[in-house]
Specification:
GTP_Pyrophosphokinase; coiled coil; binds ligand 0O2; RelA_SpoT; flat
C-alpha cells in the first residue's frame, strides 16, 4: 500500500491520467498542423503572414488541481473534462487587430472545429485593460480505440496586447495579487497606449499596403518575373491580341 492505494490501483490511476493528458497533447498537435497550413497558404496567396508566433501548452497537473479547488469542482476526470476547458491552450500573436479576426474566421470556417465559446476582450476590454480574443473550440482526435472531442482554448492577440498581458501577469504574481493602486493605474494607462499603438500601426500598414500592392502587380505583370502571367495568356483572357 502507498497511502490509501494498492500498487495496482496506483498503476491504473497513472495509466488513466496519462491517457487523459495525452488526448490534450494530441489536440494541440492537430491544431499545430492546422495553424501551420493556414500560415503557409496565407503566405502563398497573399504574400503575407498574419501570424507572428504561436505558443502551445498543456496545463500542468498542479495547475489543473489549483483550478479544481479554486472553482470548487468535483475531483474526477469526467468533472475536470467537463469544467476546465483550457487544459490545452494556444496563444497566437499577430501584428494587427484585423489579423486577429482573419485568423478567428479561418479557424471558425473549418468543418471539424466547433466553437463552444467566444469572448471578445478587444471590443470589450476587461476593467484592468486586458485585451485579447478568446475562443474555446472543440476538435475531434482519433485514437486507436476511440474518437474524442477535446476542448482547446485559443487566445489571439497583437504583439502590443501580448506585451501588456505578460507584464501585467508578472506584476500580479510579484505582488501576490495585491498590486498597489498606483501600479494598477499605470497599467491601465499602458493598456490604453498599447491600444492606440495597435490602431496607429494598422493605419500605417494599410497605407503602405496600397503602395506595396501596386508595386507587386507592376512587378509581376510588367517586369516579367518568374511568376508573371505570359502576355499571350493575358491577351486571350482579356480578348486582346
Ligand atoms: P493561465 O495560466 O494563463 O492559463 P477560467 O478561469 O478560464 O475558467 P475566465 O477567467 O472567465 O475563466 O476565462 P477568461 O476570461 O477567458 O481568461 C482565461 C485566461 O485568459 C487566463 O488564464 C489568462 O491566460 C488570460 N487572462 C484573462 N484575463 C487576464 C488578465 O487580466 N491579465 C492577464 N495577463 N491575462 C488574463 P488563467 O487560467 O488565469 O491562467
Amino acid at each position: 500500500m502507498i497511502g490509501d492505494f494498492t500498487l495496482n490501483e496506483l498503476r491504473t490511476l497513472k495509466a488513466e491520467l496519462t491517457r487523459f493528458m495525452m488526448a490534450y497533447k494530441f489536440a494541440l498537435d492537430e491544431m499545430n498542423t492546422k495553424i501551420n497550413i493556414l500560415k503557409e497558404e496565407f503566405q502563398y496567396i497573399h504574400d503575407y503572414n498574419p501570424i507572428e508566433h504561436v505558443k502551445y501548452r498543456v496545463k500542468t497537473p498542479e495547475s489543473i488541481l489549483d483550478k479544481v479547488y479554486r472553482k470548487n469542482l468535483e475531483l474526477s476526470l469526467p468533472s475536470i473534462k467537463e469544467n476546465i476547458k483550457d487544459i490545452a491552450g494556444i496563444r497566437i500573436t499577430c501584428s494587427f487587430i484585423t489579423d486577429i479576426y482573419k485568423i478567428c474566421d479561418m479557424l471558425k470556417g473549418q468543418k471539424d472545429i466547433t466553437v463552444i465559446e467566444s469572448k471578445d476582450y478587444i471590443k470589450k476590454p476587461k476593467p484592468n485593460g486586458y485585451r485579447s480574443l478568446h475562443l474555446i473550440i472543440e476538435i475531434p482526435i482519433f485514437m486507436s480505440d476511440r474518437e474524442e472531442r477535446i476542448p482547446v482554448e485559443i487566445q489571439i492577440r497583437t504583439i502590443a496586447m501580448d506585451f501588456w498581458a505578460s507584464l501585467e501577469h508578472k506584476i500580479f504574481y510579484k505582488y501576490n495579487k495585491e498590486v498597489p493602486d498606483h501600479l494598477l493605474k499605470e497599467l491601465k494607462e499602458a493598456a490604453t497606449s498599447a491600444a492606440e499603438l495597435d490602431v496607429k500601426m494598422e493605419k500605417l500598414n494599410n497605407e503602405m499596403g496600397v503602395y506595396k500592392e501596386k508595386g507587386r502587380l507592376e512587378d509581376e505583370l510588367v517586369l516579367g518575373q518568374q511568376s508573371a502571367l505570359p502576355y499571350k495568356l493575358l491577351g486571350s483572357l482579356t480578348n486582346r491580341d
